[in-house]
Design goal:
The protein has about 350 residues and is an alpha/beta fold. Helix content is about 50%, strand content about 10%. The longest helix is centred in the middle third of the chain and has 25 residues.
């Protein structure tokens, strides 16, 4: 049913609970691993034919209710003037971290139609391939998450350098976050104009912030993105991890759907956020490694607590590379069966 996911995002009645997964295409699938033997991650992202192929792989294997574009959060950074690559065992590495006012000044505001044309081309091709059968989700990284990679020079556990910049150089921080927010706003708009039928803002590392720091240093920039994109009329999903103390602030910043990770009971999120937004989540990804009886029981309980209206089933974060594809297939079928 094509509109199951869209209807749930709009809090309309559905025949059963829709589901999709973050990282639903990727390293846990043999089809993807065979491609990675020939191409790097960035080569796949920058080659529309390959990005389309990888995006469609899980749709052919599982009964997911939405496709999500295969791309990477960091793609806007290179045309902004902050090149990066992926190093084995380390993840993304930014070659020249951004830490001073002069560094921020050198970053350019990009035009997605020119600078990220390969992403938009993949979206247009995907819409043709999907042919109205499955909605397509576009996405981008949120200002704090992108800034943390830029400032740290890669992934981090404590965000020491990022937070030190926020606290000691608030003008530099806000200039960086504002520039990233404008790039993300343009990028999400361009994805929708190219054919994305929903978009998700990934603020993956926002849970590292206290509510006070979120309000002071992050919320205005997220709101700049989401309040604008929401005017385009497509579902806008707002996701973070470790955000139990930030849920109301995320709702205020924007989004028609709020993603909830496994640390927050779904009924608590509903009580705190009300019925004005839909919810998405929130199974622990590691439960896919549990015995099937336990997985089935936890999913059944989650569905009962979440209710059917205004709810999209998802994991609380992405599928892990070691996940058994048969468990993913079982999970898809079980969610639909139990919620029908």
């Amino acid at each position: 049913m094509w509109d199951r996911f869209i209807r749930a995002c709009r809090r309309e009645p559905v025949d059963c609970t829709p589901l999709w997964f973050m990282r639903q295409a990727g390293r846990y699938m043999s089809e993807y691993r065979s491609l990675r033997e020939r191409y790097s991650l960035l080569e796949i992202c920058k080659t529309p034919e390959l990005a389309v192929e990888v995006t469609l792989q899980p749709l052919k294997a599982y009964s997911v209710d939405a496709a999500i574009l295969f791309a990477d959060l960091l793609l806007p950074l290179e045309p902004m003037g902050a090149p990066f690559d992926f190093q084995a065992g380390e993840g993304p590495v930014v070659h020249s971290p951004i830490r001073t006012a002069a560094d921020v000044d050198r970053l350019r505001l990009i035009e997605p139609e020119q600078d990220l044309e390969y992403v938009l081309k993949a979206i247009r091709w995907l819409r043709q391939e999907l042919d109205g059968k499955t909605p397509l989700i576009g996405f981008a990284g949120a200002p704090f998450t992108l800034a943390s990679y830029l400032v740290e020079g890669g992934k981090s556990s404590h965000y020491l350098t990022t937070k030190r910049l926020m606290y000691s150089e608030p003008k530099v921080w806000n200039a960086l976050a504002a520039k990233l927010a404008e790039v993300v706003r343009r990028f999400l708009r361009a994805q929708i104009e190219a054919g994305a039928e929903a978009v998700q803002l990934f603020d993956s590392w926002a849970g590292a912030l206290s509510p006070e720091d979120y309000v002071t240093f992050v919320e205005p920039h997220v709101a700049h993105v989401l309040q604008d994109v929401m005017q385009l009329g497509v579902p806008v999903l707002h996701f973070g991890t470790g955000t139990q103390s930030l849920l109301e602030l995320q709702k205020r910043a924007g989004g028609t759907v709020i993603g909830v990770d496994w640390r927050t009971p779904i009924e608590e999120a509903r009580r705190r956020l009300g019925t004005e937004v839909a919810l998405q989540g929130n199974l622990d990804p590691i439960l896919l490694f549990a015995p099937r009886e336990l997985l089935a029981a936890r999913v059944k309980d989650l569905l009962a607590r979440a209710g059917k209206q205004g709810y999209i089933f998802n994991l609380g974060h992405g599928i892990l590379p070691q996940t058994d594809p048969d468990q993913v297939r079982f999970l898809c079928d079980w969610v639909h069966e139990q919620s029908a």
